[in-house]
Amino acid sequence: MKFEISVVSNTPLVGEDDKNIVARTFLEQIGYLTKGNDPDIPLKLFLNCFLGRPDKPWLVEELAVELDTSHPTIYRHLNKLKAMDLLEEVKIEEVKGKGKKKVKQIKKGYKIRYGNLSKAWTFVEAHINVAIENYRKSVEHLQKLNEKSRKK
Across the strands, what pairs with 95? Predict the structure, then answer.
């Protein structure tokens, strides 16, 4: 999965005391919430589930029930957060049945990386730095090619 995030000029949201406003504005700025779409499900997914219970690995089924939505909708929003590298996948062992009919099943769970948004954000920053460095190399190469072609 490719890393993808929006980077826009912004003012830090440190003067705002309402967590919901800060989260919504921040998530719009980084491209997780898109203007014109209903932010209810992705905002609740992020705030109530991942930030509300950062220690809990969530199964897709649990998230769909918690947010009263479909699995494809959950996956769409999970994939956006995974593309930003804010989430980590963890294995969850689920046991169904009783006695000799017990069946163990390993499923994927999702949670904020390290159970801490600030720590998870360091991964985002590292990806951004690599991307900017690669842009810089491309710009320098393009400049050299341009200079070379102008000399001819």
Answer: 104
Q: For residues 31 and 5, what is the distance between their CA atoms, to the nearest angstrom?
A: 6
Q: Which residue, 138, 131, 139, 101, is CA-closest to 6?
A: 131
Architecture of domain 19-151: Orthogonal Bundle (1.10)
Give the predicted TM-score (pTM) of the model. 0.84
pLDDT tens digits, 119-135 = 999 999 999 999 999 99
Residue of 112, 116, 122 whose CA lies nearest to 89: 112
pLDDT digits (tens, 9 = 90+) for 85-101: 999 999 999 888 887 88
Name the DSSP letter for residue 73: H
> Which residue, chain included where needed, has tokens 């690669």?
134
Contact 27, 33 (CB under 8 A): yes
Return all residues near 20 (Cβ < 8 A) that are at least 6 apart. Answer: 43, 47
Residues shown for the chain: 152
User: Which CA distances in Å does 140 have to 29, 65, 149?
Assistant: 29, 51, 14
